[in-house]
Structures are given as structure tokens and as C-alpha cells.
Design goal:
Chain lengths: 181, 202
């Protein structure tokens, strides 16, 4: 991760955008489907738009209503669904990245209380050099099924594939490690 | 100890490619050449009642393997399965609309929340889980896969995304691949049921 942050920082400095790392980065269409009661984690979605001339890198997020939060991606490989923790997500200049069902999502873990339709969920996205971008996710049910259909074909198009090198790669080590044995 | 409860990805591909070559594929559904009779298994449903091979008899069943710590794909797939059921209700007799079962491979974390979790999508949805050996027995028989993966101080589960379509005799007949488009998938299932009845009437 260090290497990536340094690279991002270097890019920022070259482009002169040292002070406000999130400059030019906005989020729109933040939403979440009403999560099932008892669900230990919720998924948030939004569209990140980089209006600036330099790439922007999201390095994580926090959410006041949750115990923890991460950038995640659902990936289908040979019929197996995997969730991956992304350490960074790059939004190229002049481009946008869509977080949508069956793909990139904000993984919000350990909700402090129930979340229902009509609620608003606050998240703070962290940019590479320490600035933050606050976003509200509207909890709404209307698109629950439809969104999966609409976004499924393009969910994997936009994001920076090189970030996959930064995933957690512990999968070969502790199969069933926490399953009670 | 590492214990894999699966036929590997390779053998899954092999099964789809050879042993159970699809006879027809509509939308994201695949019909198996030969139905696979499931072995006996002894799981529990979300109310603690036995859920066994006998529970599958007499109605169509759609089984999804998953875990509740899966906020993206699992809820959307369950919601889409309910949309599929609604589409199907327009096409077939109500008692042929399949029962949806969410089989949690993560009983330690999920047992306590399974009931309200599945009930969120439809009151008729059934959550099931049980002893590791029994889960594995089902998973193996359906040529599915799951594996626990460490993620710092937590863990996630990689799992087959395909939905098993089980006929009223308790045999695996087809698979559905998410994301599910309710209309085409309902059409696929309606045709599958017609083919099944023709076969029964011989």
C-alpha cells in the first residue's frame, strides 16, 4: 500500500494538487438497498466523478454508524463469487467509477442500529493524501432488483484493474479458520 | 484443519462441460443432461426444524449457497429470486412456484440472524444451515463450492454463485447464474417444469 500511496502522492505533487487531495472528486447517486434485519454488513453504492486533471485515489472510508468500513469488490471467477478488499481505487482524470451491485461497493460492517428505507447513511471517503469526502447514501428499495439488472453488464468496466494487486491474498492459508474448529 | 467442501472449480467446469452437458441454455439458466439425485442430508431450517432431502419433495426448490456477511451479491440475488417467483406466479400454478432456500455455509455467525435475514425478502423464504459435514454433503452433491478466507481480523467466504434448481423428486435439474433477470429466468423455469411433467407422464 505504501508504494501506491507514494505514487499517488507523487502524482498529486506533479500536478500541483498537494493541499486538497479530494479536489475535483465528487460523488453522486449514493444509495443503499434496505438491508435485511440482522445482516452483519451492508453495501453502499455511488458514482465517483473526477473532474480534475489528476487521478484521484480512494484509500478507504469510515462510517459513523458502523464499526468498520472498507472498499470491496464482488468478483465472479469460474462461477465462484468472491469478495475482495481493495486497498485503493483510482478514478482517472475526467472519468467516473460506478459502484454498483455485483461489483464495487462500500462494505459497511457492524451497524450500530437498524437501517431502513428512507434512512440516510453517512460515509466519509478518504483520498490518498488525507482529505475526506463526505457522502450521504439514501436507503431506498425501488432499485433493489432493477439495479442489479441495469448495472450488471457494466459493473466491471470502469475501475482500475491494477488495484487488484493490492488485495488481501490470504485465501490459501486458513480455510475454515473461524468456523468453530 | 483445512477441509474443502467442494468439487474443485476444475471439476465443476468438467461437470458442466462433459458429465452434465447442458441440453439447452436460456438466459442464465443451464439444464443438466441428467438430473442428479441428491443424497440424504440433515440440516436445520431457520426455525430449528429438520431440513432434509425429504423437505425438498413435492415442490420445486431454488437453493442459494451464501452467508449473511455478504452485503452485495447475496441480498440482491435473494431479492431477484423473489422477483423471479412473482414473474413465475403469472405463468404457472401457485403450488408450482418454487420454495427459495438460503443455505448458509457460515452457521456460527448466521444461525442467530437467519430467520429475520431471509424473511426480509419473503416470509416464505427458508434459511437453512447445520453441521459442517451436512453442509458439505449437500455442497458436494450439487457440485458447488465454498471456502473461508481470512481477511485481517475477520473472514469472508468465497462460494458458488449458481442457484440450484431442485425438482419435486429431490433431484438437481438445472442451475441459474446471477445476476438473475426475472423475466427470462421465470420463462426458463416454466419451460423446465413443462419438460419435467412431460417426462413424468412418460
Amino acid at each position: 500500500m505504501t508504494a501506491r500511496l507514494s505514487l499517488a502522492a507523487a502524482i498529486m505533487m506533479i500536478s500541483g494538487a498537494t493541499a486538497h487531495a479530494c479536489d475535483g472528486l465528487t460523488a453522486r447517486d449514493g444509495w443503499m438497498a434496505p438491508p435485511p434485519p440482522g445482516a452483519p454488513s451492508h453495501a453502499g453504492y455511488l458514482t465517483l466523478v473526477n473532474h480534475g486533471a489528476a487521478p484521484q485515489t480512494l484509500t478507504g472510508l469510515t462510517a459513523p454508524g458502523y464499526a468498520g468500513a472498507m472498499l470491496h469488490e464482488s468478483v465472479m471467477e469460474d462461477g465462484v463469487m468472491k469478495m475482495r478488499h481493495l486497498m485503493a481505487l483510482e478514478i482517472p482524470p475526467g472519468d467516473e467509477v460506478v459502484l454498483a451491485p455485483h461489483g464495487l461497493h462500500l462494505m459497511l460492517m457492524g451497524p450500530n442500529g437498524p437501517v431502513a428505507e428512507g434512512d440516510s447513511v453517512s460515509v466519509d471517503l478518504s483520498c490518498a493524501v488525507g482529505a475526506r469526502l463526505s457522502v450521504e447514501l439514501a436507503v431506498r428499495g425501488a432499485e433493489f432488483g432493477a439495479a442489479a439488472e441495469a448495472h450488471s453488464d457494466r459493473a466491471h468496466e470502469n475501475h482500475a484493474h491494477e488495484n487488484h494487486a493490492l488485495e488481501n491474498h490470504a485465501q490459501d492459508d486458513h480455510s475454515h479458520a473461524h468456523s468453530g474448529h | 484443519m483445512r477441509r474443502f467442501a467442494f468439487a474443485s472449480i476444475l471439476s465443476l467446469s468438467a461437470a458442466l462441460g462433459a458429465a452434465a452437458a447442458p441440453t439447452h441454455s436460456v438466459a442464465d439458466g443451464i439444464v443438466l443432461d441428467d438430473p442428479v439425485a441428491l443424497p440424504a442430508f440433515a440440516l436445520e431450517d431457520h426455525a430449528g426444524a429438520p431440513f432434509s432431502k425429504e423437505s425438498l419433495r413435492g415442490q420445486w426448490t431454488l437453493v442459494m449457497i451464501g452467508f449473511t456477511f455478504c452485503p452485495d451479491v447475496c441480498p440482491f440475488t435473494l431479492a431477484n429470486l423473489e422477483a423471479v417467483r412473482n414473474e413465475l406466479a403469472l405463468r404457472i400454478r401457485p403450488d408450482n412456484v418454487p420454495q427459495v432456500v438460503f443455505l448458509s455455509v457460515d452457521p456460527d455467525r448466521d444461525r442467530a440472524v437467519l430467520k429475520e435475514y431471509v424473511g426480509h425478502f419473503h416470509p416464505s423464504f427458508l434459511g437453512a444451515t447445520g453441521a459442517r459435514e451436512e453442509i458439505d454433503s449437500y455442497v458436494e452433491a450439487t457440485d458447488s463450492f465454498y471456502r473461508f478466507v481470512d481477511e485481517g481480523d475477520s473472514y469472508t467466504v468465497h462460494h458458488s454463485s449458481a442457484i440450484a434448481v431442485i425438482d419435486p423428486d429431490g433431484a438437481l435439474r438445472a442451475r441459474l447464474q446471477p445476476p438473475l433477470k426475472p423475466g427470462p429466468i421465470a420463462e426458463f423455469l416454466a419451460r423446465l417444469q413443462i419438460a419435467y411433467r412431460r417426462e413424468q407422464n412418460g
